[in-house]
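Retro notes, item 3 of 5
We never archived the inputs for the adenosine-5'-diphosphate complex last cycle. Fixing that now. Sequence and ligand:
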Amino acid sequence: MMLTINNINKTYSDGTHALKNVSLNLPAGMIGLLGPNGAGKSTLMRTLACLQTPDSGQMEFAGIDLKHNPDGLRKILGYLPQYFGVYPHISCQALLEHIAILKGMAKQARQTQIPQLLELTNLTTVANKKVATFSGGMRQRFGIAQALLGDPKLLIMDEPTAGLDPVERERLHNVLVSISKNKLVLLSTHIVEDIENLCHHVALIFAGKVTDSANVKSLIAPFDGHIWQTEVLPGPNSGALLLSKSFRFGTPSFRLYSKQKPSDKAVLVEARLQDKYLFDLLEQEQI
Ligand code: ADP
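Structure as it came back at the time:
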């Protein structure tokens, strides 16, 4: 059940070249698509969901050619867009029922699956409330429930944790992990932690180009032994590369990349996906 993308290009009518020769081979399971805002994540996801066509290239999932057989894909696709737009003034249960009918689900399947999905996404107690009255987190969980109708094999989720508070985010993580078996879940985000927590494989995208696509641990491994934390920046000749600056109790803390210990006070810390991402981001900015 691989998703294979070959040399996809997309240029919008205003001339923005949003996807540049994107090629990917993605295995089943939870896959992260990571890149800064404007990198092309949504464009790639909309293209894979057959909501827009690429200018060139091929895409195939589980033997289905997405360009020539989008209807074949739609039967096994679940899509959570970044913005749902307007929420109608009908109940959560009724809206799920409506979407299930649009997806072509039979009555029996609807009657079994809707209560299961309400339970999974923790919406059973609010099933009769209007979706328009839901909080951001509830709407995201509703979005996941509707995407899961029909038990899709390819699930595309565009920034599913955007705007959620920490408790909602954790709840959503639990749902995502529990549904990722026997599926390919492609999750886009600019929150690196989400990918590190959830995904075994990540594709990095900068300015429309995929720069890496690999197992998360193998991408972090080359940074092991080279990430340092310090409260005082070393001198300009240390050769260290500043990756990030954060604060703890009002005191600054710097994260540095350096093959040698950059200063007496610097402490070697465990390398994270964030370090690899910021390192690549700095490299991209120099190009
Ligand atoms: P991301 O999801 O990573 O934030 P997008 O795919 O939304 O990135 O955008 C990639 C690039 O394409 C950006 O430069 C964005 O401004 C541009 N873009 C996105 N949608 C459109 C559109 N409908 N028309 C023109 N440009 C667009």
